[in-house]
Amino acid sequence: MLVYILGVVLFALGICISVALHEAGHMIAAKSFGMKVRRYFVGFGPTVFSFRRGETEYGLKWLPFGGFCDIAGMTALDEVTDDERPRAMYRFKTWKRTVVMAAGSFTHFVLGFIVLYLLAVTMGLPNLFGTPEISQVSRCVQDARTNQQYTNPDCEPGAPAPARDGGIRQGDVIVSVNGQETPTYNDVVAEVQNLSGPTDFRVERGGEVVPLTVDVEKVTRPVSDPEDPEATKLVDIGSIGVTFTSRWEYGAAGAVGGTAAFTGDLVVETWHRLLELPERVPAVVEAIFGEERDPNTPISVVGASRIGGEAAQEGLWELFFFLLASLNFFVGIFNLLPLLPLDGGHIAVTWYERVRDWLRKLRGKAAAGPVDYTKLNAVTMVIIVVGGAFVLLTITADVVNPIRITE
């Protein structure tokens, strides 16, 4: 239990650090362009302590759930003093304001990359999408018939070795079986288990697709009995004798490229999951009222911290750090959505002003004034209410019916 609590605390601390660095990203970018940063605080609520260095006040507040960076003149409606006006953010070029607003999300991407890089050089990166890469080719395949030693790692004399004899090598990626594409190792297993005898395989090796013929062996294996989950029964299935890669391990240099590629795949997957959020909300509501919780439903910071605690308790630190990196990517992408009050909403308004004034210039008209944010208040409030309801919904589900990695 102590390890679980420690894991929850560490994961929550990691989230707090991520948010603090998000705001630090805004601050550093703003200062680098000469904008005036009034305050940079970690947390909300009453102030624990603060100090002033130069023109900026730095401090810590009692509630470590976020932070803020107060940049003078983030919009033209913000009140600024006479000495602040020349350095107000709204007076700077569009691209500079964009960089400042995007710097928070950029920080999440950098932090996520660093976490994954450290994971790559220590525990390895998980085979996230189930790529059917071969990590080991067995010297034989065995079955569970009473006259054979299924649990004995030593091969019987003359035992078949379909993959080895068919030319499959370590590092090959199986791209098709019997003419059927196999993008994941589950697809390979699903195809092979129904086959026997000579079968066409195609593997990717060194950037080329190599055709092979593998004599699939029918073996007897124990599987769970659907009528009695605690029992097993013997069935005949096709087997070729390979082990698929569950994670990729790297050296310090090779991990840079490996992490970059993995990060790209993870960002794309995160974007897809973000687009699926609306259609998964009903499942969250059903989970609150007693339905089995779908592990693919969205979770809150509470749920993520609980999973982090379980991962620590089970010694699954690779899952702990992978989840922390994934959360950073999600927050980074979500924050760039063109919706106020998100940073992406401010970026959208900034570029709307830029494009609008460019079009007016083409028509010989003077630039219009800054966008009146008061006219956007209604839309902003709707987004805040919807976002708040979503957060409350996920927190409730994570309390009453959480996603668990252990049972």
From TrEMBL:
CDD domains per record: S2P-M50_PDZ_RseP-like
Keywords: Hydrolase, Membrane, Metalloprotease, Protease, Transmembrane, Transmembrane helix, Zinc
Known cofactor(s): Zn(2+)
Topology in membrane: Multi-pass membrane protein
TM ranges: 99-120, 316-337, 378-400
Residues annotated as domain PDZ: 157-207
Keyword Hydrolase among record annotations: yes
UniProt-annotated location(s): Membrane
Stored PANTHER family: MEMBRANE METALLOPROTEASE ARASP2, CHLOROPLASTIC-RELATED, REGULATOR OF SIGMA-E PROTEASE RSEP
Sequence similarity: Belongs to the peptidase M50B family.
Name of the protein in question: M50 family metallopeptidase
